[in-house]
From TrEMBL:
Keywords: Membrane, Transmembrane, Transmembrane helix. InterPro entries: Transmembrane_26. It holds the Pfam family Tmem26. It comes from the Eukaryota. The lineage of its organism: Eukaryota, Metazoa, Chordata, Craniata, Vertebrata. The chain crosses the membrane at residues 7-29, 35-53, 65-84, 141-160, 172-190, 202-225, 246-267, 273-294. This is Transmembrane protein 26a.
Amino acid sequence: MAFFIKFACAIVTRLLFILISLIGVWRVTLVKNDNTYWLMTFLFLPLVVEMIITLKRRKGKDYKWFSPAILLFLISIIPSLWILELHHQQNKSSDPQCKKLDSWENVKSMISLNKTVGNITVQTYLKGLDQHLSTVCPNDWILALHQILLILLIVGKWLLPLGAGVTRDELSQLLLIFVGIAADILEFTSETLSDVKENSPQLVYVILSVWTWSMLQFPLHLAVVNSKPESQSQGDSLLTKHSTDIWSIVESLFIQDGPFLIVRIVVMTYFDVFHQMLVFFAIKNFLVVILNFYRLYIICQDYRPVDTSRTSTSIPL
């Protein structure tokens, strides 16, 4: 019974990945008014191939330090988000009147179709649903896709069967880390992109590039999933003994807080954008970077390699 549950979870998770990516492609074709963008669905093929191989060879189980399914999901949906973000930044002034999803009434009006129609067919229903969804503001659509993407990355990792050598304790730690990472990434993209001026298209490319780079934290599990402490000996190297802490520091410095801090400093200095929230989050990133360097210093200071030649020759009296 447990085998069939794991098998079903592996399939359902990847189908959800494909569904959200498909919604992203559909939104791109609608915004661009060009059906050739449906060719982006070919990006789903590697995920389908990975699903077949994983189900056949690994019975649906994920890998220990790396998740190919999550990486291929990112590859399938990130191009759609790039196109939508760039299109929105280039056409802010010409966007038509739209409905913002900032109240329950607006949300209900989006999801409820006209019930006065007597015999409603599936085609009529889908056409009405498409008309309702097309009235949502482009920025709300993009934000919703960002939010669904991050939530699905966390839930998807939770649903995927555990890889060999991964404990539930390690998985729970990883999911908690993912929640914090997702909140920081969403805040970075939504807040920083809202500061972009109309004459700064290059800043959009910089922000999206850093956002894409930061998303690589989700397929990698090196900051939590490592060898057991009881298997370590006194002669182990610094990297072996403190691999979890070191990988966590590296990810923060080079994939998340470090790049976020650089972008925010560039936004404030070069692009002359200044407000309280931008300064606050820049200070927050700066503190995280400094604390990570401090943590690395403490780890290196406390590490004392044992001189095995000396201990072996010394005989207690």
